[in-house]
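Hi team,

Filling in the usual template for the complex we talked about on Friday. All components are listed, including any nucleic acid strands or ligand strings, so the model treats them as one assembly.

SUBMITTER: L.P.
PURPOSE: interface mapping
COMPONENTS: two
RESIDUES: 810
SEQUENCES:
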Amino acid sequence: MAFLRLGPRRLRAGELRLRAGEVLVAAAALVWLAASQFQLAAHWAGIALLDHFGHGQATLPVAPGEPTLAYIGPGAGIALIGSFLTIFIALLSAFAALLVWPLRLIWRLIRGRHAYKYAQVPRVVILGLDGLDPELAEKFMDEGLLPNLQRLRDEGSFRRLGSTWPPLSPVAWSSFSTGANPGKHNVFDFLTRNPSDYRPTISSVRLREPRRKFKLGRYIIPLSKPEITLTRKSKPWWKVLSDAGIFSAVLRVPVTFPPDKFHGVQLSAMCVPDLRGSQGIFTHYVETGQEGATMDGDVGGDRIRVTRNGRAVESYLRGPVNTLRVDRPEMRLPFRVVSDGNGAAKMRLDGQEIHLPLNKYSEWVRFAFHPAPGIKVHGICQFLLKSFEPPFDLYCTPLHIDPHKPVMPISHPASYATYLAAKHGTFATLGLAEDTWSLSEKVLTEDEFLEQTYEIHAEREAMFFDTLRCVRQGAIACVFDTSDRVQHMFFRFFDEKHPALQPQERASHAPAFREMYKVMDDLVGRTLEAIGDETALLVMSDHGFKPFRRGVDLNAWLVANGYMVLKDGAKTASHPYLVDVDWSKTRAYAIGLAGIYINKKGREGQGIVAPGQEARDLLRELSRKLTGLRDDQTGEVAIHEAVLSADVYRGPYIDQGPDLLIGYNVGYRVSWDAAVGKAGTAVFEDNRKAWSGDNCVHPALVPGVLFSNMKLREEPVNIIDIAPTVLELFGLEKPAYMDGKSLLPAETE
Amino acid sequence: MPKIKIEQATYDRLAELSGKAGYSSVDEFVTHIIERELEKFQDASDDQQIEERLRGLGYIE
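RESULT (copied from the run log):
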């Protein structure tokens, strides 16, 4: 591999200028834009819009199409479209699309010629390996386990890539996308809270039921669409490229649900819900024991007791609440399982017969719930039959949105997910697709979890390499989650001091950790082969990893120190989501993973701390007391640094995030209780869960990796620098809102 | 997507300040101002199943 040689460094300011002779073509393009509105419908009519998406310019429709159905899980609604009208419009629009196709082609050729005029390279590929740790990568490189990353290090560049405050995936990937700090993109944590009532929600997406609806008998008919809004603000680099006519393929980059609309294609990732609207609820079918959630407090998966009728076992898929019915019943799909006599079984579900091999995952199974006549909610799942003989034992993955017929917007254009499914087969669509909870709950074994994780990895590889083959010009970004999930769940086997380590299991599971790094290295090697000599490659992660041995219960500390008061003078809060808090006497509270909020007047519903000097004084006091907080049991400093968000963020959304950011030391993280707004009896507790590695520590302790086939400037480099780098590679100036700076060395270097 | 008409002078001022405030565009600036005002009229979390939406997130239990 030779270093990539970059072209001339000329930057273009502003938008593309049209020459006089191109004005007519521009007018024709407007016609095309109008027609493109109908392309999704054309797809449903069976018109072949899913052809290759091209050499040089995309030929896949970049239609800002809405999904035909918009189901948003619990407490949501379904937009109805009459099937006859749909077919009629589809045929009409398909005809219109065919008519304007030659004009579109001409427009693309002209625009494309100018779009790449100042580009230093024809193509930029960003391979995201979520959570890949630079210390571990270096260790394994030195052991000779990672020859491809080693080549990049030796012949190109290897840097520790600074992460965000806090170094959490949704926050860091949002900074990757926008080139801006969280104060400008508004994603501060996995969770945020509604300040008016302190209730938590996912930080990057807002889901609301249709506002207008009417009752018709036992049905509720929505008259408006449900609201599905990406709450990540600012502007991602692919939209800046799009403005300049440059194509991007953005696959599974976190915090892209619902997808952006731009010149390119996108498949949504982290925070895409399952059919029930959750982040992924698995089901464990059993023959004995209590039904309900697999953990106290209605968390984890669902446990459903099956019925055995002679040779058959009967149960049901638990679907979403039917929001089209007045009584909002839970939708269910019955199934029946019969043994084939050899340990395996056959399942009858939704009119299909499904083969269930013993101790092996089934293929993806497609099915549909029927909330009302003529309406279907399509989903997919996989089964793992662990025993048909008593006691029956069957695992079912969370019910993913069916990519063949997505009921929510999971791709741009809307037909892109369908295209991928048609070309590569059914694939996992859930944001956090690898089912970590089922391993934590011991419903899946370590090996079964790994099998699932690597199957999902293989699906994504197929999409990624196909995109590398098809998109010869423009930007490609694809994020793989395997590295993150395996480290979360297997760190205990790699850390001798971990409370969750079962020494007898260490020998059998510890190799999985190194093996994962080797798999990632192999992926990098095949990527290098596929891209050739003219593509700029960035291999990066959003953060590194550390063991999570002990949890810090911030709320217990706040209660013990008088900053939080619980109702009725209680000393512990056993209910989640801060419901036990007496807000009239509470000055600070913790929820989520990032830090502490002040109960601020004018912002919080029952705020008591005046904004301005009083709030600042309180934050300084908390920062002083928490920085250096020591764990008496271990003698270690648990909190490396507690910083005021106002001191590290800049931008218009600062007030939406935590006011005090907690930078934990290695081995520590916010406790499980405090993360959901409970307060336990002790400030420190052992973490004995399979979820044993984490990245919720001080960002200086968990930088990510950055490898490249280019020579990059020296450290310090940060994840916010990636976006300006991509822009410079395509000859575009960095927009003013971006905080990062290009990683390309100055020309004099 | 609906559009709103505003005075040119107001727009010019927004354009001047949006960059300084850290917004990526005037549209984002205006949307933020409007959303902030709308929050004052927002009922408490109108979905009784918020907790259900958080289920399955590995980072919390």
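MY TAKE: Chain B has a mean pLDDT of 84. The radius of gyration of chain B is 18 Å.

Thanks, L.
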